[in-house]
Amino acid sequence: MIRNDIQTFVENMPKHITIVAATKYVGSEDMRILFKNRITNFGENRVEDFLKKYQSLKDLPITWHFIGHLQRNKADKIINYIDYLHSLDSYQLAELIEKKRETPLPCFIEVSVNAEENKNGVAYDQVIDLIKSLLPLSKVKVIGLMMMAIQGSSQESLDQQFGKLATLRSNIEKELHISLPYLSMGMSEDYLEAIKQGATHIRLGRILFDKV
Ligand SMILES: *Cc1c(COP(=O)(O)O)cnc(C)c1O
Question: Which pTM does this prediction carry?
Answer without folding.
Answer: 0.97
